[in-house]
Amino acid sequence: MISLTQDGGLWTVTIDRPDKANSLTPEMLEDLCRIAESAQDARALVLTGTGRVFSAGADLEAARTGLALSPLWERLSGALVRLNGLTIAALNGTAAGGALGMVLACDLRIAVPATKIFYPVMKLGFLPQPSDPARLVALVGPSRAKLILMAGQKIPAEEALAWGLIDRIVPPGDVLSEAQALAADSMGATPEHAAAIKALIR
Q1: Contact present, 129 and 73 (Cβ < 8 Å)
Q2: How many domains does the chain have?
Q3: Of 67, 69, 75, 201, whose CB count within 10 A is highest?
Q4: Which secondary-structure segment (H or E) carries 188?
Q5: SS3 sequence, the chain?
Q6: In the chain, which stretches have pLDDT less than 70?
Q7: Percent of the chain beyond pLDDT 90?
Q8: Is 47:13 a contact under the CB 8 Å cutoff?
């Protein structure tokens, strides 16, 4: 349910469980962690999903048995942040709950117009993963982070773009081709050059 394709240095990771809104099981989350941790040589890594939802976060039954509090979420986002290649979240639809952590950890976020962003931790009685609030605040500021984390607001794509939560809205069906276009310069550079520029931005 997690697939990986490699085209030279471009890694494309796809969450493929559309009948369950691409919600993640522990096994799927482990697979994502392993891929992210093994992608040190990737020039660019793209995360996307199948169907109309990027990911609804934790699978409901798995969440009830502890997945919502699993350290795997933090392990995944940390692995993505440490990559020297360009990381792009290519949102084919809504990103919700714990899945938002991997989106926030990416360098760039592009989305189709129907995308919504939300993280209902207040309503569900969970804390967000430790690194997620700081990454969210860095993108949108503290008040807007509270709108998402404390007021439970669902942020549509146009508003998310205006906030800086996503970087570009693309037509449905074009999200992967746009991600590939954004990755082109990194794909043409040496890994050392890309790593040096990323280190300067950090």
Answers
A1: yes
A2: 1
A3: 67
A4: helix 184-188
A5: CEEEEEECCEEEEEECCHHHCCCECHHHHHHHHHHHHCCCCCCEEEEEECCCEEECCECHHHHHCCHHHCCHHHHHHHHHHHCCCEEEEEECCEEECCHHHHHHHCCEEEECCCCEEECCHHHHCCCCCCCHHHHHHHHHCHHHHHHHHCCCCCEEHHHHHHHCCCCEECCCCCHHHHHHHHCHHHHHCCHHHHHHHHHHHC
A6: 60-65
A7: 85
A8: yes
142 contacts 135 by C-beta, under 8 angstroms: no
Tokens of 65: 């048995």
**What's the confidence (pLDDT) of residue 62?**
61
User: What DSSP assignment string belongs to 160-183?
Assistant: HHHHTSSSEE--TT-HHHHHHHHT
pLDDT in tens, 101-138: 999 999 999 999 999 999 999 998 888 999 999 999 99
Q: How far is CA 104 from CA 81, 139, 165, 175, in A?
A: 9, 9, 8, 17
Rg (CA), the chain: 16
pTM for the complete prediction? Answer: 0.96
Q: Are 42 and 81 in contact (CB under 8 A)?
A: no
Distance of CA 71 to the CA centre of its chain: 16
CATH number at residue 121: 3.90.226.10
Instruction: Look at the block and give the residue holding tokens 């939802």.
Output: 53
Segment holding 136, helix H or strand E: helix 132-140
Q: Mapping DSSP to helix (H, G, I), strand (E, B) and coil, where does residue 21 land?
A: coil
Which residue's entry shows tokens 């502890």? 66
